[in-house]
Design goal:
heterodimer, A: about 300 residues, mainly alpha, MetI-like fold, 11 helices, about 75% helix, B: alpha/beta, Rossmann fold, 2 domains, 8-stranded mixed β-sheet, about 20% strand
Chain lengths: ~300, ~325
């Protein structure tokens, strides 16, 4: 009985110690991340976007697809003819721009997250294997990646969507496949740089298995450029999804996706500047915020840039 | 005579190199017919200039690579294939302390990694062991939580030594462990190494090109030239009576802290020949002032020179050993 209590006590303390380590690591991470002011601003903007996306039904003044036939192409409120009911104006069929932008945040963030996760998970594992194995395996993988890279990315995505069938989900899968070779190449070249370093040999002498070497020794040292690539791919994913939507292969028309909105508004650029400017600005702000975060992440994750 | 912990019998390692699209593929004989033995608590120094096969030897001994031919015995057992049990008994310390520690891991993890991979110790036990070893090499407990880049070269090298010690190996391969360090730090690290050797009875395979360091630490010495052992014997013997002209030239190039002593410096001319295309006969013949037709025709065997004890013979691979009056 006492033995049992003692063992559970030890277990609890071990768990507590683990939680404490995790807390300390987080605190340390935040300390270095917050050194970079731009990254902190980016993070706040991004968090705001996430909140807006989550609370879209509460915040948005109108339904995103509700058409007000008496208010077509109403300018924003500060312009002559603007109405307080439609703060950022309305589009060609009388839908409220602000509400559509708010709902659009949902789609854009969702697309970015899913596409980047898919492309990164696939690309990094294939790149690690390719860089670690070398020889025939590496050659085979790299030739396949070269074929993917040889096509214009949008064209290939288009072909893939045509095969898979149009729709947002298939568009995301296609974009992930198209973005993946960048991650493979980046990871592979980092692995090449690192694999002959003495600490890797030292881990091998200590008896590390290939899987341990790849995931614990090599991977953390190869992630820096991959994280930066991931933030860039995030914006690429949003833009490519928009392009596919424009061509009728991605998000289907009534969906308030920013890129689709941009494409829909093409013909009104000269007559109604707000229908193109606001979705464009939304994409710009999102992409900028994510890139700033990527910058800060790189600084915080690279111990060489840390000061003691 | 102590326990024999490491023995190499006619070890050779050849690398295939492609000659490009049009060239013929060649073979680099990085190590040829090297035989040596190492006892517990002793230091065998391997000396030679760059490209003589020192590092290849380190890679063979640490089981990173397999020899092309020959046999390696660790603790009397042949090390063939992936012998996990034997791997634990032999660890390595590298030359460059800036490259040998994983920059992403804290010192504590770097030290505990070998235990994590090879033993079933719990976290508390691992930590205790890591702190014990840190103390042994003169690191403070608060260093446990720091990253490698926060340390100086000497401290890093001590961390590398501590890591190598974690599995309680019997043999430590030291691949130029002090040549990247300041002179004052060199002495400190060498002292730690000799203290550890007497405390733990470690055998060292000490690879170096710095003869003054070798003189300080080695019991036995093995001089290599272009993949072959050209002279071997006890350090005392070899330093007192170098037999091979190459050893003599190496020794004469070592600065001696003794003002007024007349120094005869043997200047070697020419470059180290390419290991892809070694000269016929004795590999040293194009640079040797005693070379004659015999040297250019055949490879001299490693033979005993001078009156030395049978247990630890002084041997040289030369047709005209210097001790015979030249």
């Amino acid at each position: 009985m006492t033995e049992q209590t003692a063992s559970t006590g030890a277990e609890t303390s071990a768990r507590e110690a683990k939680a404490q380590t995790r807390r300390r690591m987080l605190a340390e991470f935040w300390f270095y991340f917050s050194e970079n002011k731009g990254a902190v601003i980016g993070l706040w903007v991004f968090l705001a976007l996430v909140v807006i996306a989550l609370l879209a039904p509460v915040i948005a003044p109108h339904e995103p697809n509700q058409q007000y036939r008496d208010a077509l192409l109403v300018p924003p409120v500060w312009q002559e003819g603007g109405q307080w009911a439609y703060i950022l104006g309305t589009d060609a069929v009388g839908r409220d721009m602000l509400s559509r932008l708010i709902y659009g945040a949902q789609f854009s963030l969702f697309i970015g997250v899913i596409v980047v996760s898919l492309a990164m998970a696939g690309g990094v594992s294939v790149g690690l294997i390719s860089g670690y194995m070398r020889g025939a395996v590496d050659t085979a993988i790299m030739r396949v990646m070269d074929i993917v890279l040889a096509f214009p990315s949008l064209l290939l995505a288009l072909v893939l969507v045509a095969i898979l069938g149009p729709g947002l989900l298939n568009a995301m899968i296609a974009i992930a496949i198209v973005l993946q070779p960048h991650f493979v190449r980046l990871t592979r070249s980092s692995v090449f740089n690192e694999i002959n370093r003495e600490y890797v040999i030292s881990a091998r002498v200590a008896g590390a298995s290939p899987f341990y070497l790849m995931t614990r020794t090599l991977l953390p040292n190869c992630l820096g450029p991959v994280i930066v690539q991931a933030t860039l791919s995030f914006s690429n994913a949003i833009l490519d999804a928009a392009a596919l939507g424009f061509l009728g292969m991605g998000a289907q028309p009534p969906t308030p996706e920013w890129g689709t909105m941009l494409a829909d508004a093409r013909e009104f650029i000269l007559r109604a500047w707000w229908v193109v400017t606001f979705p464009g600005l939304a994409i710009l702000v999102t992409v900028l915020a994510i890139n700033l975060i990527g910058d800060g992440l790189r600084d915080a994750l690279d111990p060489k840039l840390k000061r003691s | 005579m102590g326990e024999l912990v490491l023995e190499g019998r006619n070890l050779s390692k050849h690398y295939q190199v492609s000659g490009g699209v049009f060239g013929k593929p060649g073979t680099v004989k990085a190590l040829q017919d090297a035989s040596f033995s190492l006892e517990a608590g002793k230091t065998l120094a391997v000396v030679g200039e760059s490209g003589c096969g020192k590092s290849t030897m380190a890679r063979l001994v640490t089981l990173i690579e397999q020899p092309t031919s020959g046999e390696l015995l660790i603790g009397g057992k042949p090390a063939a294939g992936d012998s996990e049990a034997l791997r634990k008994t032999i660890q390595i310390v590298f030359q460059n302390p800036y490259g040998s520690l994983n920059p992403r891991h804290k010192v504590g993890y770097i030290l505990e990694e070998p235990l994590l991979l090879n033993t079933s110790m719990g976290p508390g036990e691992r930590r205790r062991k890591a702190e014990e070893t840190m103390e042994r090499v003169g690191l403070r407990p608060e260093h446990y939580e720091r990253y490698p880049h926060m340390f100086s070269g000497g401290q890093r090298q001590r961390i590398a030594i501590a890591r190598a010690l974690m599995l309680e190996p019997k043999i430590l391969v030291l691949d130029e462990p002090v040549s990247a360090l300041d002179l004052s730090i060199q002495a400190q690290v060498l002292n730690i190494l000799s203290d550890l050797q007497s405390e733990l009875g470690l055998a060292y395979l000490f690879i170096s090109h710095d003869l003054s360091v070798v003189k300080h630490i080695a019991d036995d010495i093995m001089v290599m030239y272009l993949g072959r052992v050209v002279e071997s014997g006890s350090a005392k013997e070899v330093f007192a009576r170098p037999s091979h002209p190459y050893t003599a030239a190496l020794l004469s190039a070592t600065p001696v802290a003794e003002p007024g002593r007349k120094k005869e410096r043997i200047m070697l001319t020419g470059e180290l020949p390419s290991p892809l295309n070694p000269p016929p006969g004795c590999a040293f013949n194009p640079r040797c002032r005693y070379a004659d037709d015999t040297c250019r025709a055949s490879i001299p065997p490693l033979e005993t020179v001078g009156p030395t004890p049978a247990a630890d013979p002084h041997r040289a691979a030369c047709f005209h050993p210097l001790a015979s009056g030249k």
